[in-house]
Amino acid sequence: MLDFLKNSKKTVGLKQSLKALRKGQVKTAIIARDADERLIKEVLDICERDSIEVIYAEGMKELGKACNIDVGASVVCVLK
After folding, report:
1. Stretch 47-71: mean pLDDT, rounded?
2. Which of 20, 25, 7, 4 is nearest to 75 (CA)?
3. Which among 6, 44, 54, 69 has the fewest CB atoms less than 10 Å away?
């Protein structure tokens, strides 16, 4: 399902994703369903405000694997 991430220009992780979101560089945000809601609230708020598409991944482990990293990721943003 998330195979497109391997070849996409993206940010991985909360800090880098928030930075890109604040700069208006994001086309799509992918959020892990098991990510801490308090941590991803700002991501969701910016996505709603700026009408950015949000996709939910099954979990942080799956999202990390889709990005070719060995650890989980709570948020990944596909850049414009």
Report:
1. 96
2. 20
3. 6
Radius of gyration (Cα) for the chain, nearest Å? Answer: 11
- Tell me if the pTM is above 0.70: yes
Phi, psi of 55 (to 5 degrees): -120, 140
CA–CA separation, 49 and 2 (whole Å): 24
In the chain, which ranges are continuous DSSP H helix?
A: 14-22, 37-49, 60-66
State yes or no: pLDDT of 1 exceeds 80.
no
Task: Say how far apart CA 37 and CA 64 lie, in whole Å.
Answer: 18
